Each structure stands twice: as C-alpha cells, then as structure tokens.
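User: Run a structure prediction on this.
Assistant: Running it now.
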Amino acid sequence: MRVIADRDVCIGAGQCVMVAARFFDQDDEDGLVLASASRVPEDTLGLVREAVSLCPSDALSLVEDD
C-alpha cells in the first residue's frame, strides 16, 4: 500500500502526525502535511489507516501498489 497526501486539500490539522509521526509530518512554513514515506509496511498499516480516517479534510488516502 502507498499513502497519498493531497496538500491542496490539507487544512493542517495535524491529526495524521499525532497518530503516525513515522509516516507524516507538517511543513514548518505552512503547516500542511508531508508524507514521510510513500510505501506502508504491512505491520504498520493499521496505524496509517487510523491516521487516514482521522483526517478532517480527507487529504489522505491509501492505494494499492502498482
């Protein structure tokens, strides 16, 4: 699985960072999401799914690897 972060939709709430800081960060200048790693290992998929589901602007999504 890969995580996709849409910075045009992000509102900078930071829920993703609080739940899964290993995969998400916030830009120091505008506070918008930065995806730290695009591929999500199977053993951390649940954590990333939780972060994606908590995003208030739906800026995050998980997609199958190509």
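The two ends are 9 Å apart (CA to CA).
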